[in-house]
C-alpha cells in the first residue's frame, strides 16, 4: 500500500516525470496527489510513446460533466455496510476520491478494498480508465422509427472488428459491460448456429436498458447509455511514428426515434443533449419510408418494405434534431452547424439499381508495403452520386440539410446493414442468418474518423478505380 504523503519516488505525474518529490493538488483542504499514469490503470509500459500525457479534461460520456483526471472517482469493493450504497446510484457501490493506492495501481477504499473501476465524479456512472489517457471522439446517430439504426450499429461494429486490422488499427470494446446490448445484437445477427435461423432485433427502447437512472437530490435524471470503443494504431500503421497519440476512444450514442417528439426532451430526461457535444452526426435516412422513392422503386424491387406501412415524417425528425443541436449548443438560428454530418442512406440493397450497381467496392486498397489505406476518392464519388439521387427524389430535404450544415462536411453514404431484403411472418420482418452480408456498413464511421482524425486513415492517392468506373457506366 502506498500513502502519497510519505512517498518520494520518481513517477509520471500528469505526463511529467517528477524526480525526488511528488506533486500534490489541494482538494477540500486535503492535499491529494495528481494521479500518476500507472494509478489510472494505464501502466508504466516500455512504449512511453503512449504514456507521456494524460488528457487535460475528461468529458463524462453519460452526463457530459467535464473534470480533470485527478478527480476521477473509484468504485469501492469492500463488502461492508456503508460502501454498498451510493447516493447517486442506490443500487451501486460507493464512489470515492482515493488518496491511497496499491503498488499494482489499484485504489484503496476506506475499508482497505482494492478498487480498479472508475467513475464520473458528477453522475457516478462507471467510465473506463482509458478515458484519462485517450482523446474521445463522440458521435451521435439518429433516425426515424423502423429506419434500421440498431441493425446498422450491429453491422457497423461487426465489420469494424474485421476491417480495422487491415487498416493497421486495433479495434476493441472500451467498456464491455456498457456495450453488452450491442454485443447481443451482433451475436443475434452474425453468430447463429445455422444459416436458416430467423433473426430480428428488438426495437430501441425509449427507456429501459438503453438508459441509466441517476439521482440528483430530489430529482431523478434519465441519461443515455453510450457505446465505447478503443482504437489504437498498430506497429505497421504508416503513421505510427508520426502521431503524438496512437489511441482514441470512440463514443457512440443511439436514440429511439420517439426521443425526437416535441416535449420528450426535458431537464430530467436529457436523452438527446449529447448531439450538441458530438464531433460527428449520423442521420439514418430510410428511402423505403419516402413516397417519392417508393414511386421510383416499388415496380423494380420485390423488397416488401416498399409496400410496408412505415411512413415516418423523416423531414420533421431532422428538423427537430437540428433545432435541438442549436438550442443545446447555444447557437443563433441563422448559424450553420459546424459538425460533420454523414447521411446514411439505409437499405441500399432495395434501391441499388438507382446507382446502376449491385455492390460498391471497398474504399481501401493495399499500399506497396501491404497495409491498406483509405480510397477516400471512392467515398467522395459515391457520395456525390447519392446526392444527385436526393436532389431528384428528396430535394426539399436535401436543401434543408445543406442550408443547416456546411456542404464540405456532408457525406451521403449508401448502406445495407443486412445486404438483402427481409422476409415476413406473423411476428414481422426477419432475415435468414446465412443471407446476411452487409454492404458499406463500416464506411460511415470510417468517413467520420477520416474527417476528425485524418492521420489515423491516410489516403491512398490514386485515380478512380476500374471497379468504381464500372458503377458509373
If you average the pLDDT, what whole number results? 85
Approximate helicity band: 10-25%
The unreliable regions are: 1-51, 463-473
Q: Which strand order does the major sheet show?
A: 16-20-21-15-22-23-26
The CATH architecture of the largest domain can be given as: 3-Layer(aba) Sandwich
Question: How would you describe what is shown here?
Answer:
The protein is an alpha+beta fold and 473 residues long. The protein has two domains: 2-132, no CATH class; 135-472, P-loop containing nucleotide triphosphate hydrolases (Rossmann fold, 3-Layer(aba) Sandwich), CATH 3.40.50.300. Helices cover 20% and strands 23% of the residues. It has eight helices and 28 strands. It has helices spanning 149-166, 180-190, 291-297, 314-328, 376-393, 395-404, 443-452, 466-472; strands at residues 2-3, 11-13, 16-18, 24-27, 30-33, 58-59, 66-67, 73-75, 95-96, 100-101, 107-108, 114-115, 118-119, 126-127, 135-143, 169-173, 198-199, 211-216, 219-224, 227-233, 247-254, 280-285, 341-345, 364-366, 372-374, 410-414, 423-425, 428-432. The chain has a seven-stranded mixed β-sheet. α4 packs parallel to α6 (395-404). The longest helix has 18 residues, at 149-166. The radius of gyration is 24 Å and the shape is globular. The model is unreliable at 1-51 and 463-473 (pLDDT under 50).
Amino acid at each position: 500500500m502506498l500513502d502519497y504523503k510519505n512517498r518520494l519516488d520518481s513517477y509520471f505525474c500528469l505526463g511529467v516525470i517528477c524526480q525526488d518529490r511528488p506533486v500534490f493538488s489541494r482538494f477540500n483542504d486535503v492535499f491529494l496527489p495528481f494521479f500518476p499514469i500507472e494509478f489510472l490503470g494505464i501502466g508504466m509500459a516500455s512504449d512511453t510513446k503512449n504514456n507521456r500525457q494524460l488528457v487535460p479534461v475528461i468529458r463524462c460520456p453519460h452526463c457530459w460533466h467535464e473534470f480533470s483526471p485527478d478527480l476521477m472517482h473509484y468504485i469501492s469493493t469492500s463488502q461492508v455496510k456503508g460502501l454498498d450504497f451510493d447516493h447517486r446510484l442506490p443500487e451501486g457501490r460507493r464512489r470515492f476520491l482515493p488518496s491511497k493506492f496499491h503498488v499494482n495501481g489499484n485504489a484503496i477504499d476506506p475499508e482497505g478494498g482494492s478498487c480498479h473501476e472508475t467513475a464520473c465524479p458528477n453522475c457516478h456512472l462507471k467510465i473506463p480508465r482509458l478515458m484519462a489517457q485517450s482523446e474521445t471522439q463522440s458521435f451521435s446517430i439518429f433516425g426515424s422509427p423502423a429506419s434500421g439504426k440498431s441493425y446498422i450499429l450491429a453491422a457497423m461494429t461487426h465489420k469494424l472488428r474485421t476491417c480495422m486490422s487491415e487498416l493497421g488499427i486495433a479495434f476493441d470494446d472500451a467498456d464491455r459491460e456498457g456495450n453488452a446490448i450491442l454485443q447481443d445484437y451482433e451475436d443475434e445477427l452474425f453468430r447463429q448456429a445455422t444459416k436458416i435461423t430467423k433473426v430480428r432485433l428488438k426495437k430501441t427502447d425509449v427507456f429501459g436498458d438503453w438508459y441509466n437512472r441517476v439521482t440528483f437530490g430530489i430529482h431523478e435524471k434519465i441519461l443515455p447509455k453510450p457505446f465505447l470503443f478503443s482504437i489504437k494504431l498498430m506497429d505497421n500503421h504508416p503513421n505510427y511514428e508520426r502521431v503524438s497519440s496512437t489511441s482514441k476512444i470512440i463514443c457512440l450514442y443511439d436514440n429511439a426515434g420517439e426521443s425526437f417528439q416535441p416535449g420528450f426532451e426535458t431537464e430530467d430526461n436529457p436523452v438527446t443533449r449529447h448531439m450538441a457535444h458530438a464531433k460527428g452526426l449520423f442521420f439514418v435516412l430510410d428511402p423505403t419510408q419516402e413516397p417519392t422513392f417508393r414511386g421510383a422503386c416499388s415496380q423494380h424491387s420485390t423488397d416488401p418494405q416498399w409496400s410496408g406501412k412505415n411512413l415516418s415524417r423523416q423531414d420533421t425528425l431532422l428538423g427537430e434534431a437540428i433545432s435541438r443541436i442549436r438550442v443545446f449548443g447555444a447557437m443563433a438560428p441563422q448559424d450553420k452547424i459546424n459538425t460533420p454530418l454523414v447521411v446514411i442512406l439505409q437499405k441500399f440493397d432495395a434501391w441499388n439499381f438507382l446507382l446502376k450497381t449491385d455492390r460498391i467496392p471497398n474504399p481501401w486498397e493495399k499500399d506497396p508495403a501491404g497495409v491498406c489505406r483509405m480510397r477516400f476518392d471512392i467515398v467522395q464519388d459515391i457520395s456525390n452520386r447519392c446526392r444527385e439521387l436526393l436532389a431528384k427524389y428528396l430535394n426539399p430535404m436535401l436543401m434543408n440539410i445543406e442550408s443547416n450544415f456546411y456542404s464540405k462536411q456532408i457525406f451521403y453514404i449508401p448502406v445495407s446493414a443486412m445486404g438483402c431484403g427481409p422476409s415476413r411472418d406473423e411476428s414481422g420482418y426477419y432475415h435468414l442468418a446465412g443471407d446476411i452480408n452487409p454492404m458499406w456498413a463500416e464506411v460511415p464511421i470510417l468517413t467520420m474518423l477520416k474527417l476528425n482524425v485524418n492521420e489515423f486513415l491516410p489516403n491512398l492517392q490514386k485515380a478512380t478505380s476500374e471497379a468504381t468506373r464500372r458503377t458509373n457506366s
